[in-house]
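Anyone opening a protein record will find just a pair of labelled lines. A complete record is shown below as an example.
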Amino acid sequence: MSVYFMCAMRSLGRKKLRTFLTASGIAIGVASVIVIGAIGESGKASVFSELDSLGINGLSITEKTTTSKSVQVPIDADDLSACLKVKGIRSAMPVIMQYGTVAIHNDESSALFWGVGDNAKELISIGVKYGSMFSRSDISCAAPTCLVDEAFANKYYRRPNVTGERIHVYFGKNYTTLTVKGVVTSGSGLLSAIGGAYVPYFIYLPYTTAENLRGTSGYDEIAVKTLSENNIDSIGGEIVSVLSHRHVLSSYAANNMFRQRQRLNNLTGIVTLIISSVGAISLIVAGLGIMTVMTVTVSERTREIGIKKALGAKNSVILREFLAEALVICCFGCIIGISAGLLTAFAVTTALKFSFALSPQTIIMSCAFALASGLSFGIYPAVKASRLKPIDALRYE
């Protein structure tokens, strides 16, 4: 078999430019599939990372919209304690969300304030880069402190570490001053990069502080993380049952955010597959290019084929020789395409501020499709060459 590839390399080497241009068609197709796949997978991984930082990976317990027969009773600390008694819960945390305004250096911007607990790092995957997380004493005494994200720090202070700085906020119906206790990586990083000024900055503060500033007691929801992802729905049902028994006239709902995450995963996977399929069309076009070039090659080497047959070469030998040439062109194209695709994908994901991610299956499938396309379109010229009659081939001018 190696003899065929050596002959193919020798034959293709005679027409280096044409071989390179033909292989470039395969390379472009492979590279396009890799780039599309990498952007899709990197974007999906980055979005899911941001969703995790927003708590979109567990249960969200909220009160349903009130009806004429129901009474709206805010979720309180006793409800939280009752929820924690349900089996299968790893941890739970009250959450308060409120839009407000932050003023720094005579510049005002909208912000989304998150009232969270001292276990926020576990439930909503906040990564503390500078400073420290809220302590239990911060929660118990409703300390006027906060955590800001990196986008906020870089925007207003031109540096990442703004621990100890004081910011003025308008929260609910009150103006107050908060001291920055730490800088975190949070869900607004990617969102702000995509949405720009339309996405507010995220500012975290103790939920007790948020209650005081808002002027009302109670939580907007309870974020729950379970010990296992397999029984989230049953645990959510138990929590709703517990709260319904405590407040007979109120109605509650358990939102399985993990299931919503899975649905989003399936949706993004389908979109990536469709777009990659569009990119794979270029591989078919490249295969047509191989067939055209190989057909021209057969015409150019007709006398050579006639001499080989006159010397005893069988049809199968000529067939394998031309198929080997088509395969070598595809291999060259795949190597160039993989290299160019990975470099381009890395550059694009870096520019989009995505963490680079690419499944090996994407590379394998694109190369397999390229090889199949090249061989399929290479069959016709190979068969044409193998069926040439020696006498006619030797007379060919």
